[in-house]
Every structure is written in structure tokens, then in C-alpha cells.
């Protein structure tokens, strides 16, 4: 199929939907700290899972997750919170809304994507990153599985900044952030739902982080000053990091012909992948993927795609550049992989807890 772009046709339905729904600015309370909201009982006990479902979760192969696995098993298992971080120029956030709709159509729980307070789809890169870090700790304590982050453009920079917040790069401690009250709590640590031990916010990890189009001139903005010199350094606060580069990206100022500056683990312990997308992809719209699951050709590609370490032949992929199918396939493979791994970690810890009761 011809590798062309048809961006207006892809973005118009997303923009129209957002205009109908109404777009409001982010608002945060400036009042006193919220009351600490520790779970009333350990989440390992409060989540309802029968033994047969636990057995099916443990039997899953994280690298070979089928639609049937999602429908029959994962849809009933604990799912990590996915924190989407959109770019900084209006209305580019609509592209991340499209990605959220893609995930839901592929089988991911909507309740684990929407913000639990105001139900927004994604977070602004102008939101203080330490709030996102504190919110990650809150989600982990209340849900028992480590969240994921997916960032686009400045949102990709924000995701990396949050990883550095969790690593203590900028401050030795951070407050827990209550996402429902939209306020900090008067504590800087949580009860680890797996071990039961005290776990500071600085020290928490996410299971998977993805960033596309991170870097470039937006690094001169004040909200990015603290991370711009560390933008390619990935600390040990994510299990896996996928950094996406577009072949020709004037916004991020990366060009594969001249050699792409690679992301790297600061310690060598993080699984880091550097992925180059075709030069025909467009920076502003790469997460626009809501249309893919409803097309049988795209759906088959997404369901069967497995990374090989090398970029696949563009001629073997369905659609055109504006379909962003490779970006969608790479992210979806890793999101469902870490969904399985986190659910299995939860079940193993749960069985260990039961064994000691």
C-alpha cells in the first residue's frame, strides 16, 4: 500500500469529539494537604480473584498474548494504571486521546487509563512532574501493580523527568499525591502492597515507560530545564524504557541519517530499546491510532506483531504513514507484556501472603 499521509482525515474526528465534549484547563487545589488515604485493607486481600483465574494468569506467556488471553483472563486480572502524557501545544493532546481510545478498543480497561478524579485522558507536560511521581506511588499502593507511562513530545520529556523524580535526582523526598482530591498527602512514603514494608515515593518504580519525540527546542522551556541535560539518561525507576525516534523529526531535532542520540540506562539495569519509526511519520500526530482496531488488516497486524530488534520492512505493514501502525504495534506489544508480568507478580505475592495467614 502507498506510504502516504492523510493527517487531516485522521485528526478531524478526534478534534470534533473533543470540541463536543468540551475542553477545560487543569485546575489544582491550593488548599491544605489531603488526609492520608491508605487502603483500609491490603490490596492483595481485597481484590477478588479465584484460584482458577490465578492459575490462568500464571500460565500466560507475556511475549505471546492473544486476543483470547485478554478477553478470558487479563480483562479479569489486575491492570496497571497507564498514565498518558501529551505534548505541550494545543490541540496536540487530542492525539493522545486517540491513543487512549486505541488501547481501550484493543481490550485495555478504560478505568485504568482515565484519571480517577476528573476522568481526563492524559496529563499536561506543564503539570509539576513531582505530582505525577507522587501519584504513581498512590496508584501502586491502592492497586497493587506498578503503573506505566506513555509520553508524546514534551510529554515524553515529562515521562523521563518523572523517572528522575522517582530516582531522587531533584529532591530527596516527595509527598504522596492523591489523584482524587488533587492534593498532596501529609506523608512521603506508602506501604508497599507486595512486601508490606514502608516505601518512599522516591524509590518507587513504573513497569513500562514509552517516549516518542522527546527533546528538541522545547527543552529551553522553563518546565524542562531540570531534565534537558539528562534527557537521554534513564534511571532505575522503570523496568523497561522504549524511546521512539522519527526518521526525520524537526520538532525533536533528531534525524536518523545523521545518527540518532540514543537513550541509555544509567546503571545498565533498565531494559532500554531505541526504536526508529519511518521518516514519513509526523511528530504532531504519531499517537493518532484510534482508527486501527476496527480495521481487520490493522487488527491482525497488531495481534500478531512481535518485535525482532530490527525495524520491519515498511512494505509488509498495512496502511500508510499516517496510520502510525508500527508505533501502535510496538507500544501495544510491550503494554500487554507488562500487564501480564505485573498481574503475575501480584498473584505470586498474593499466594505468598495466603501461605502465611
From the spread of the alpha carbons, the general shape counts as globular
Number of domains: 1
- Architecture (CATH level 2) name: 3-Layer(aba) Sandwich
- Spatial gap, N to C terminus: 59 Å
Strand order of the largest sheet: 1-2-7-9-13
> Which percent range describes the beta-strand content?
5-15%
The helix tally amounts to 9
- The CATH homologous superfamily is termed Alpha/Beta hydrolase fold, catalytic domain
**What is the averaged pLDDT score?**
86
Largest sheet, strands/sense/barrel:
5 strands, parallel
Structural class: alpha/beta
For this structure, what is the CATH class? Answer: Alpha Beta
Radius of gyration: 20 Å
- Here the CATH topology equals Rossmann fold
Helix-residue proportion: 25-40%
Number of strands: 13
Instruction: List low-pLDDT spans.
Output: 11-30
The topology string of helices and strands comes to HHHHEHHEHEEEEEEEEEEEHH
Main attributes?
13 strands; single chain; 357 residues; globular; 33% helix; five-stranded parallel β-sheet; two-stranded antiparallel ribbon; Rossmann fold; 9 helices
Report on this model:
- This protein has about 350 residues and is of the alpha/beta class.
- The protein has a single domain, classed as Alpha/Beta hydrolase fold, catalytic domain (Rossmann fold, 3-Layer(aba) Sandwich), CATH 3.40.50.
- The chain is about 35% helix and about 15% strand.
- The longest helix has about 30 residues, at about 325-355.
- The chain starts with 6 loop residues before the first helix and ends with a helix.
Amino acid at each position: 500500500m502507498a506510504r502516504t499521509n492523510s493527517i487531516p482525515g485522521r485528526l478531524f474526528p478526534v478534534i470534533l469529539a473533543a470540541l463536543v465534549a468540551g475542553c477545560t484547563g487543569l485546575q489544582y487545589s491550593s488548599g491544605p494537604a489531603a488526609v492520608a488515604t491508605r487502603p483500609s485493607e491490603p490490596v492483595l486481600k481485597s481484590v477478588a480473584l479465584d484460584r482458577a483465574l490465578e492459575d490462568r494468569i500464571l500460565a500466560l506467556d507475556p511475549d505471546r498474548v492473544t486476543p483470547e488471553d485478554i478477553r478470558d483472563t487479563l480483562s479479569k486480572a489486575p491492570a496497571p494504571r497507564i498514565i498518558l502524557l501529551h505534548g505541550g501545544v494545543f490541540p496536540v493532546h487530542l492525539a493522545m486521546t486517540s491513543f487512549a481510545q486505541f488501547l481501550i478498543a484493543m481490550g485495555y480497561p478504560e478505568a485504568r487509563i482515565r484519571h480517577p478524579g476528573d476522568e481526563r485522558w492524559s496529563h499536561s507536560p506543564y503539570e509539576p512532574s513531582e505530582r505525577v511521581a507522587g501519584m504513581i506511588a498512590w496508584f501502586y499502593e491502592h492497586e497493587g501493580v506498578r503503573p506505566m507511562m506513555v509520553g508524546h513530545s514534551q510529554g515524553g520529556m515529562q515521562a523521563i523527568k518523572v523517572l528522575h523524580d522517582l530516582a531522587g535526582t531533584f529532591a530527596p523526598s516527595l509527598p504522596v499525591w492523591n489523584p482524587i482530591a488533587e492534593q498532596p498527602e501529609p506523608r512521603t512514603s506508602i506501604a508497599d502492597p507486595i512486601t508490606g514494608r514502608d516505601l518512599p515515593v522516591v524509590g518507587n518504580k513504573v513497569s513500562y515507560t514509552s517516549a516518542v519525540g522527546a527533546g528538541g527546542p522545547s527543552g529551553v522551556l522553563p518546565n524542562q530545564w531540570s531534565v534537558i541535560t539528562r534527557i537521554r539518561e534513564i534511571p532505575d525507576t522503570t523496568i523497561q524504557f522504549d524511546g521512539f525516534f522519527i526518521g526525520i523529526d524537526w520538532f525533536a531535532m533528531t534525524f536518523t541519517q545523521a545518527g540518532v542520540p540514543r537513550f541509555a540506562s544509567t546503571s545498565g539495569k533498565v531494559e532500554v530499546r531505541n526504536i526508529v519509526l519511518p521518516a514519513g511519520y509526523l511528530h504532531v500526530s504519531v499517537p493518532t491510532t484510534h482508527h486501527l482496531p476496527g480495521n481487520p488488516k490493522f487488527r491482525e497486524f497488531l495481534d500478531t506483531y512481535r518485535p525482532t530488534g530490527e525495524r520491519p520492512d515498511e512494505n509488509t505493514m498495512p496502511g500508510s504513514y499516517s496510520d502510525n501502525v508500527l508505533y501502535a504495534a510496538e507500544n501495544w506489544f510491550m503494554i500487554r507484556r507488562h500487564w501480564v508480568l505485573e498481574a503475575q507478580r501480584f498473584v505470586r505475592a498474593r499466594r505468598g501472603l495466603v501461605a502465611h495467614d
